[in-house]
Amino acid sequence: MLTLDDPRWPSLNHRGWSDGGRSRGEDAPFVPDELRYLRANPTDRARFTDLWPYLCSEDTAWPAAYAAVPHLVAIAEGLRPAARVTICTSSA
């Protein structure tokens, strides 16, 4: 699992992020910052829902998604089972 401080994160593209930064005209998040926020606020369904399309959208799982998944699993493991279902079904 990449740590959230790993210097490779900027090179992991996602929707609105390529070549180490935001694509022109995009307001794409920096995934490690979002994951840090979600670790501190694991029940923030809206923030998770906002992040998800940047990781998986338009029939694409972006490279940043593969690095984010272990962190998202760790976040989910800290939630009650009912809360996990609510978070996961909100992005479907």
If you compute it from the alpha carbons, what radius of gyration comes out, rounded to the nearest whole angstrom?
13 Å
Q: What gap, in angstroms, lies between the N and C termini? A: 25 Å
SS element count, helices? 4
How would you describe the oligomerization state of the chains in this entry? Answer: single chain
Account of the protein in words:
This protein is mainly alpha-helical and 92 residues long. Helix content is 50%, strand content 9%. The strands form 2 sheets. It has a two-stranded antiparallel ribbon. β3 (56-57) and β4 form a beta hairpin. α1 (31-40) runs parallel beside α3 (63-77). The two termini are 25 Å apart. The mean pLDDT is 90.
Please name the defining characteristics of this protein.
92 residues
Compile the SSE list and pairings.
Elements: E1 17-18, E2 21-22, H1 31-40, H2 45-55, E3 56-57, E4 60-61, H3 63-77, H4 81-90
Antiparallel strand pairs: 1-2, 3-4
Helix pairs in contact: 1-3
Short summary of the structure?
With 92 residues, this protein is mainly alpha-helical. The protein is built from 4 helices and 4 strands.
